[in-house]
Here is the input.
Amino acid sequence: MGGCAGGAEVSKGSFKPDYLGIDTVLLDGSLVNIRVAMKGARGDKDVIAYARCGAAQYALIRGFGFARNVRTTVAERGGIWRGDAVYTISPALPKGVDTIDAEVTVSDCGAQGIPTV
Here is the structure.
């Protein structure tokens, strides 16, 4: 699972991420694969946040209000961080601990300068 191992920490003032894009693939009616790439991440948490923002926006695009993380993997190679996440999307708050209110999350992502789909 992502979030366990991180790269070297960078002070908040020097955090200048380069978001390289979000790819989404609908796996099933309510299951979506979110793949992200970025440079300048401080560690897994930044990549996971980027994927989360993509999942939240995707849920809204599909007419759903919520998402739940199924799994996320993060890897870094050559200075490029990649995240591969799977989320379920739904009209009602799903059971589970890693749930997302899509509207609130997209708003928060915008406030943090993290792009969405």
User: Anything to note?
Assistant: The beta strands are 18-28, 31-39, 66-77, 80-90, 99-101. The chain has a mean pLDDT of 90.
